[in-house]
Amino acid sequence: MEHGEGNWLVDSPRFSGHLVQSISRRGGLKYIFLTHEDDVADCNRFAEKFSAKRIIHEADSHAVPQAEIKLRGYEPVSFGKDFLLIPTPGHTKGHAVLLYGEKFLFTGDHLAWSRKRRSLVAFREYCWYSWKELVRSMERLLEFKFEWVLPGHGYRARVSREEFESFVKSLSS
Ligand SMILES: [Fe+2]
After folding, report:
1. How far, in Å, is the centroid of ligand 1 from the Cα of 95?
2. Domain holding 79: CATH number?
């Protein structure tokens, strides 16, 4: 994601020449935010290449012990005026999401769109830490405004407030 105060990479893809060139052309990377332990891939190579700071929640940080910034507890942490990191334990203990500008919610493996069901979806069968915690994390997200859900797996979608509220309700009923 390009930003005047430094670019962000959300979860790490494989390190490839094409991608490195394309990131370089856009001014490199300031932060690499890892939503959780599963999708760290080549983050260390990207971090080294661009002198970027790696961010992960401490509960998942065994996957990237060298991470420069570790989130702690459940309180959201803001970076500049546009970026908010929100811990969302459930899929893993240290899962967190990134809210950009009250508009784009990068959800990792916490929340996605299902084309088949034509609705939001959370992955109960791929929930490694606690489904109960995941539901609680989803309820906490009701405090925040966002328009787009951008997941690590599954489909992205523009989602209305009402859609998200009824989805959260369906999880807890
Ligand atoms: Fe995952």
Report:
1. 9
2. 3.60.15.10
Query: CA 138: distance to chain centroid?
Result: 13
Tokens of 86: 């929100």
Query: Domain total for the chain?
Result: 1
Residues 6+ apart with CB under 8 A from 53: 30, 31, 32, 47, 68, 69
Residue 55 domain-assigned (yes or no): yes
Q: Cα Rg for the chain, rounded, in angstroms?
A: 16
What range defines the domain where residue 60 resides?
8-172
Assigned domain for 136 exists: yes
Name 101's Cβ contacts closer than 8 Å, sequence gap at least 6: 82
Cα of 110 vs centre of ligand 1, distance in Å, is: 8
pLDDT tens sequence across 33-81: 999 999 898 999 999 999 999 999 999 999 999 999 999 999 999 998 8
Is 2 inside any structural domain? Answer: no
- pTM across the whole model: 0.96
Instruction: Measure 122 CA to ligand 1 centroid, in angstroms.
Output: 11
d(CA 126, ligand 1 centre) in Å: 8
